Amino acid sequence: MKVNGKQYRTIWLDEDNPHIVKIIDQRLLPHQFVVEELRTVEDFAAAIREMHVRGAGLIGAAAGFGMYMAQVQSPADDPEYLRRAAEVLIATRPTARNLAWAVNRMRQEINEESTSAARECRALTEARKIADEDAEYCRRLGAHGLSIITEISRRKQGPVNILTHCNAGWLAFVDYGSATAPIYAAQQAGIDLHVWVDETRPWLQGSRLTAWELGQQGVPHTLIADNTGGHLMQHGMVDMVIVGTDRTTRCGDVANKIGTYLKALAAHDNGVPFYVALPSSTFDWQICDGLAEIPIEERSDAEIRYVSGALDDGGITRVAIAPPHTRGANYGFDVTPARLISGLITERGICGANEKEIMALFPSTAG
Ligand code: MRU
After folding, report:
1. Structural domain harbouring 117
2. Known active-site residue 246
3. Which of 52, 166, 300 to mutate to test the pocket of ligand 1 (most atoms within 8 A of CB)?
């Protein structure tokens, strides 16, 4: 997607040095646009853990390149080194399914080769493939999701009002995004639309990232405090909700950014369609009951007790918003049960959030 008119992906290989991978440091957006270089598997683990890169798809792509870098670094091609690197990467963000999926895919590919040079070459090819696939699947799911927006737009006067939570935009993937892909496709098709952007406490992915990327692409949007969605839905001001997901069970339960469940409840109570957009890499085929089986990441309570932002002079600073001795509980994700979801928008088409329809769309992937 475009940043100040220039085309970017969220992760790419340095043109001159194949041992350097570049990312956009998302901690600094929207105040500063800084490209960071990652050179070691430790760099990748820190970038994922500390959220320089974040969002299910991008975490997967970063893990792919991280495993490539582990192979580059591996002393005397030591398989133990690669196994440990895999463990370190997988431990960085427990909820995101794409992370373990990408690491395991990389390990399988690397193990197919017997020489160090061939392993490195294969690792790079596979890491690139994971990133390219991520972008392509998001593009395709955008085309499928467009049909839902088109249908709503035919039925009503004025803009289609879409509410989204967190950032499931191109910044959360390699390109296009999941929740935003149908929005960008609708914009391209000339459909009149407007997006309600939840600020998404505590990390503010909505106000810092979604608002920024929609602004860069010229999509009309309005930032709202996290608790506003229910009110808007009660007053007919939301035509549909689209969110992303970090892990989706084969029965259609979905783990997404904390607060998604409350939006789904409000949507259900008000008859507002609630869609989840995802590339198939986000499915966890082994599990059915999301509430019981999806691990929920807990992060430092500093993210709750402090807020970061830009001063008028552009400098980024952090301020306390709670008494010094108050502790916080920082659950990163919650689970939205399948029964509250109108449909899953995937690269293969749209299906109901239930095992039968999911398996009909992905018959060979079921584990
Ligand atoms: O903690 P984050 O910013 O990685 O969480 C991201 C989300 O919750 C997104 O909605 C999710 O990854 C789905 S879209 C990639």
Report:
1. 2-133
2. yes
3. 166
